[in-house]
Amino acid sequence: MRNILLSALVLTALVLVGCGDDTRPGATPLAIDDFCADFVDAVCDDVAACSCGATADADCRSDLATNCGGADGVLSPAVRARVTAGTVVYDANAASALLAQLRADASCDNPIIAVGWGIEEVFTFGGVLTGTLAPGATCMDESPFGGACADGICTNVGGGASRCIGIAGLGEPCGLGIDSACIDLNATFSSLESGGLLLRCNIASGATTGTCAALLADGATCAGPDECASDRCEATVCAPPLANGADCFVGSECSSGFCSGSGASAVCAAAATVNNGGACMDDNECVSGACQRDVCVEALCATVGSEPPTP
Q1: Is 119 within 8 Å of 152 (Cβ atoms)?
Q2: Domain tally for the chain?
Q3: Does residue 305 lie within any of the structural domains?
Q4: 205 contacts: CB under 8 Å, gap ≥ 6
Q5: Where in the sequence is the domain holding 12, given as residue range(s)?
Q6: Is residue 29 part of a domain?
Q7: Scanning 12, 120, 200, 208, which has the fewest C-beta atoms within 10 Å of its C-beta?
Q8: What is the per-residue pLDDT across 35-68, written as a single tens digit (0 to 9) for each?
Q9: Do 300 and 18 touch, CB atoms closer than 8 A?
């Protein structure tokens, strides 16, 4: 169940989003009908200053308009229908705060990383869209954003059925019959793709339920790689991360965090050595953390569909 939830979460990294919640006096609530236009402006106004290419501004506005209000967007017609029906709550104050944070960020970083989005904010789009269905409830959501689940996301659990899978933090119940996945609630959004946000469900022998616990250290007895902090379980023992040059499948196996290449030719390699304008094959090769069409670019540039600037 944890891996199903992680896969769904990683997909959210493909959408450019921000975060926020508003407890400050004087903020002007943002009506739902105005959200997408203001969201696009808040992000794309910075693109021209980040050397993202001649068409970057237009591409950013086109892409983000679709990502916000399109059929699969944050405020898609389906999400708007849930808001109208009351299964999802739109918070106009949180929306206003989100855009204020995005506008205040003048860097060329991915806005999610720059603003410091936490894992729990993934599910509510920074508090803007909050579902009302409890874990275990039947659901029909297509996206983690704007979903009807109050805690977690709607996940396909097999047999054509989908239900709300919640978040269980350190020390909370997990296991058979509990509709939740073990997640480190202190993790940041940047932990998503590395799998660093996961905990394990510690279940005693013969039991069906247990509690969420930290991943196991090197040398501990393990039943599989998802129990180990190194993501490596060799002969039922958590093994240390692989050194550069060793064969690998995913970056979490490597001490560098980067598995270069694919298939049988993939090996652990040093990451983040290529500056903007240099050739690349993977985001981890770039100092900026962004490889767009085989060229290292500013992180913000990689979130829009424009051609990378000429080196």
Answers
A1: no
A2: 1
A3: no
A4: none
A5: 2-214
A6: yes
A7: 208
A8: 999 999 988 887 877 878 778 888 888 888 988 9
A9: no
